[in-house]
Amino acid sequence: MIYCDTSLLVASLLPEAETERVLTWKSRQSAEPLAVSGWTVTEVSSALSLKVRSGAISLENRTEVLNLWHRLLEQNLVVVPVAAAAFELAATFTDQVELGLRAGDALHLAVASLGGYSVATLDRGMADAAIAFGLAVEALD
Prior knowledge:
Layout: E1 2-4, H1 6-13, H2 19-27, E2 34-37, H3 38-53, H4 59-76, E3 77-80, H5 84-94, H6 103-115, E4 118-120, H7 124-132
Parallel strand pairs: 1-4, 2-3
Helix pairs in contact: 1-2, 1-3, 3-4, 5-6
């Protein structure tokens, strides 16, 4: 299964610089559902709120996109649990200071690692860290 990070999902929900690339990639995926975690659900809501605060979208648009997001969650995504072990593994990932990995991204990678998932992300730093930790990274091109 492929674990999708928040950057990829937000670009699939709203027009962004990478939206076309993400939608093309998603159209090439098999019928197998993509994986996210409960942390992803939190981050998507946060990203949409940030877009409202920055004036990028209206509050009404946020509501529409949030409804679309919830339909996507119900119909096309598998929400995998974030086990206690994921937090511990994420901490060890952030200990690799040379990678510059943020806590949220480390948690995504830990969930993917523990689940045996490959990773799909638009974040180059996160992709590089995933490779350093032995995870497969999906090519979005």
